[in-house]
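Limitations

Structures in this collection are predictions, not experimental determinations, and the ligand pose is part of the prediction. Treat each record accordingly. The example that follows, with magnesium ion as the small molecule, is included so readers can see exactly what is and is not provided: the inputs are given verbatim, and the output is the predicted complex.
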Amino acid sequence: MKNQHCELNELGWSDWFEQRSECKPTDTIARVAAVDRDQLLLVDQTGLFRGKLAGSYLYHHQLSHELPCVGDWVCVEKQSGDDFGVVHSLLERRTSLRRKSVGKVVEYQMIAANVDYVVIVQSCQFDFNLKRLERYLVMIMDGKAEPYILLTKTDLVESAVLAEQLAEIRSAGITSPIMTLSNVTREGVDDFKRLLLPGKTYCFVGSSGVGKSTLINHLIGHETLETNTVSGTGEGRHTTVRRELIRLNGGAMVIDNPGMREFGIFGAESGIGKNYSDITALSSKCRYRDCSHTGEPGCAVIEAKHSGKIGQEHFENYLKLSKESEFYQLSHAEKRKKDRDFGKFIKSAKKDLKDK
Ligand SMILES: Nc1nc2c(ncn2[C@@H]2O[C@H](COP(=O)(O)OP(=O)(O)OP(=O)(O)O)[C@@H](O)[C@H]2O)c(=O)[nH]1
Ligand SMILES: [Mg+2]
Ligand SMILES: [Zn+2]
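Predicted complex:
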C-alpha cells in the first residue's frame, strides 16, 4: 500500500469541519478510508495508518450510525511516528448517505459520510428503473449530497433505447445531471472523468453488475503506475466486498459500493407484499412453508402459473424482487453478526481499559 503526503483539504477537509471540530490540539484529525469491524483504516496528511475505536467511545455509542463509517472525519490519539491511532470522537457529518434500519429505535445504516456527490449507476440494459432512481434521489437529498445519474453499458442497447430512457427521466421531472458511458467501448468514460473535481468525494451506488467497479478501475487504471490511492488498490484491482475511499490521481476521491443488497430498498413493507399479494396468498397453499416457488413439489404458485392464473412476466418480476429482498435479509444478518462482533469488542476493550 502506497503512502502519500497531502494537505487535509485535498482529502475533503474544509472550514465547515474546522468550525465544528472538537478535536483536542494534541489530536490528529483523520478521515476514515475503510472500516473492517472494529478496525479502521485512516488517512491524514502523512498518509495511511490503522486505528481502532476507543473503548469509551464504543461504550457510549452503540447505534450503528454513531460509529465511524467510510468518509467520516475523526479525532485520533496518536504518537508522532506511530502507525496506529485510537479514535475517540467523530466529527459532525456534513452529508450522509444512509438508510433507515427496521427496528424500534431510530437507527440508520450508514453507507458513507461526507460525500459531495452520489453517482446513481444504472445499466441501460435491463437495469434501468425510474422508480428505483427516484428512491435513490430521495435518499441522496435526505443526506444533503448532490446526485449524478449515470447510465452504463450503452454498447448493449440501440441509441433509440437510450434516448427513450433519457426522455423518461426528464419527463418525470428529474433535473439532475445525466451521463452515459460504456466501459467496453470507453465512449463517455473520459467525459465522465472530466467531471470529477479534486478534493471532492464521489460515492457510487446502484444494483449489482451495472459496472461501478469496472468504471472505477478505469478511472484508476489510466494511470495505474502513478496512481495515488487512498487505500487497498495496491493489487491494481478493486473488489467490492467493502467500501473504501480511493484517491484518484486527479485528486478526486471515489467510494465504491457493493450492489443492491447494500441498499435494501425492497423491505417487506414496500413493493413485494402489496404488488404481489396474489402470489403471497397462493404461497400459503404450497406444500412447504419456505417454498421458493422455483421447482419444489406441491408448489401452488407454479401450478397457478401453468394454468395461466398468474402471468409469466408477473411471476418473474416477483422472483427477481424476492431475490433482492433475500439479499437485504442477508445484509441484515451480516449486520447483526457485525453488531455481535462489536459487542465482543466492547467487552474486550473495556477489559483492556481496566487492565491499564
Ligand atoms: N457490455 C458492457 N459490460 C460492462 C460494462 N460495464 C461493466 N460491464 C461488465 O459487467 C459486469 C459487472 O461489472 P462490475 O463493474 O463488477 O459491476 P458492479 O456494479 O461493480 O457490481 P457489484 O460490485 O456487484 O455491485 C462485468 O462483467 C463487467 O465487465 C459496459 O459498459 N458494457
Ligand atoms: Mg463492484
Ligand atoms: Zn411454492
